[in-house]
Amino acid sequence: MDSATSDPRATPAPGGATERAPLARTADNGLKIVIVGGFGVGKTTMVRSVSDIRPLNTEETMTLAGRGIDDRSAVPGKTATTVAFDFGRISLDERTVLYLFGAPGQERFWFLWDRLFSGTLGAIVLVDHRRLADSWYAIDRLEHHGTPFIVARNDFGGPPYTSAEVREALDLDPHVPLVDCDARSRESSKGVLIALVEHLQRLAAGTATAATAAGAAASAAATVPTAPETAT
Predict the structure, then answer these.
(1) For a tag on the chain, would you pick the N or C end, based on fewer CB atoms within 10 A?
(2) Which of 210, 64, 34, 58 is nearest to 124 (CA)?
(3) pTM for this structure?
């Protein structure tokens, strides 16, 4: 899968450079989202495609020292890998900024995940349906932390599988959204972020409804008169 992306946000500047919109000085509300998944599923590509700024990435060239450690059989053309995390930013409005963190996929870097999950609003689990088992650990850690997430199936081609088959393979709860995407496309990646935000809104609404119902039940119970004690 080619990871090249187009960037319609950058405008030509004198000297051949590009100009990008700076962060507004009024921005004071930062929201954090983490993109996780197996090795080579497109996390770095997604951060690159959707970020308003030139992303920070920690990709390093893969060398022979990694032979036998990193399984490249499913991604033979991959020559670089993330060794810490990717970072991008999206300005939602003048006051609210979305920060994107792409987690490294190899098992030897999983110890970083728990720190990346700290303070996270929600997460995207990016999967390649040809090797779904690579995503099990990400889902397990998110469920362990109680972090809301959705699953995005990146378009790598290959044999088609139905959503029901993917859900069964990943043992997804019915309430967890499963969407399709092309991580190389800004519009497609934006659609994944929108799906996550809508999922978080539904969860928040459900929590508020449950809290309201519990409060109403407690209030009703408090106003129910107790039967007078019978003298013995």
Answers:
(1) C
(2) 34
(3) 0.70
Please choose, from the candidates 137, 82, 85, the residue with its C-alpha nearest in 3D space to the C-alpha of residue 112. Answer: 85
> pLDDT band at residue 232, thresholds of 50, 70 and 90?
very low
Q: Return the residue matching tokens 């992306």.
A: 5
C-alpha distances (whole Å) from 144 to each of 113, 114, 149 are: 12, 10, 12
SS3 of the chain: helix, strand, coil, percent, to 5: 35, 20, 40
Cβ-based neighbours of 126, under 8 Å, separated by 6 or more: 35, 36, 37, 41, 42, 43, 46, 135, 152, 154, 183
**Amino acid letter for position 43:** K
**Partners of 180 in the beta sheet?**
153
| Across 111-115, 121-125, 150-154, 175-179, least confident range | 111-115
